[in-house]
Amino acid sequence: MEFNEKELVSRSKAGDNRAFEELVKRYQRKVFGIAYGIVRDPEGASDVCQETFLRAFKSLSKFKGDSKFYTWIYRIAVNMSIDYVNKHKKDPVLFNDDTNMLEKIDWDVSTSKPINPIKSLDVKELGTLINNGLQKLSENHRAVIILREVEGLSYNEIADVLKCNKGTVMSRLFHARSKMKTMLQAYLDGEETK
Amino acid sequence: MSNCSEKQFRNTHLLHDKELADKSEATLKDIVASEKDFLDNLGEEIRRDTREMEQQISFPNMTANIMNKIEADKSLVAVMLDYFKSNSLAFGGLAACLIIFVLALNLKNEILEQDSVVATDTPINTCIIDSIENKNSTSLVLKEEKKEDPVTIIWVFENTDTEKM
User: Fold this and answer.
1) A50 in Cβ contact with B66 (< 8 Å)
2) Which residues contact B96 (CB under 8 A, 6 or more apart)?
3) Which end of chain A is more exposed for a tag (fewer CB within 10 A), N or C?
4) Worst-scoring range by mean pLDDT, A54-63, A158-167, B42-51?
């Protein structure tokens, strides 16, 4: 028998573990996606994902149902991911060699564009560059870009998850995209000249 | 300008403006298109990367881990509650003993405090009621009388060197 989200939440609150397991199954991929988008490390994201559900289970009594369950759990996931990043900022395993790829490029300070084309580097794959670019963004910028691009949330939904207003979401998204574009400019220019 | 009519001049300029407008509109469209392409690519790349990472994760295992941890937490709490319930008499007795011990300690401190107050603060009247003089020393008989205490204590100091007193 299929229960809707609200029923699953109320059953979980009443101590029905199977109902909570169903919620875990429904949202763990999405929560993992958000955690990975911010943490940029699959193992770390997996830990954050599990901790997010444990925290959610312990705090279920506090969930009043004013917002949707998924925005509530996404909020926990974003906060826990940011905490994880802050705790592991000095961890060389988490932010390892790949981040150095962009540092290998000589940047023109006046134009904020790379002097040497990225094509001269061994790494040409756009995916790697995007990954590196995301690692260069702040956690808040990463969160907003992941919620928008991966989860496809609306500005209002993102505002609800991040507990900020819609204008802030739009501003963060604009800056995050601009920074990404600047970082990927050399690749884009290289593609055009092909 | 003198060689062309006003109409010709206007037509030429209007045409020029239109060309400029068309050109700028085309540029704007290009910019918008390139922005859209960029955003589409960016979104698609991020989604592809996330999907790749998801494939490395065993979600059924993750679900099992989460539920095991929840069960373990629950059972730990249950065990503790059971323990408290089944040992309530023992815990009650222990708590009562602790309370009695603390009360006794407080009472003892209060008594000590009172004693110290009596010993230090109560004024004492002391007077020499007798003295027995020897060759080099004097034996004194002192009488102490506490104000609140009717009991009189008589101290006798024998062979006391009066020079040193």
Assistant:
1) yes
2) none
3) N
4) B42-51
Nearest residue in chain B measured CA to CA from A192: B34
SS3 A151: coil
Of the candidate ranges A62-66, A80-84, A176-180, B85-89, the one whose mean pLDDT is the lowest: B85-89
Q: Which residues touch B160 (CB under 8 Å, ≥6 apart)? A: B137, B138, B139, B140
Hey, what are B132's tokens? 């027995």
pTM of the full structure: 0.59
Token pair 């989860």 in the structure block, residue: A151
Total of domains in chain A: 2
> Does a structural domain hold residue A158?
yes
Domain-located, residue A92: no
Does A134 lie in the same domain as A52? no
Distances (CA, A) of A80 to A33, A66, A67, A73, B94: 13, 21, 19, 10, 42
Contact B65 A57 (CB under 8 A): no
Instruction: Give B39's contacts in chain A (Cβ within 8 Å).
Output: 177
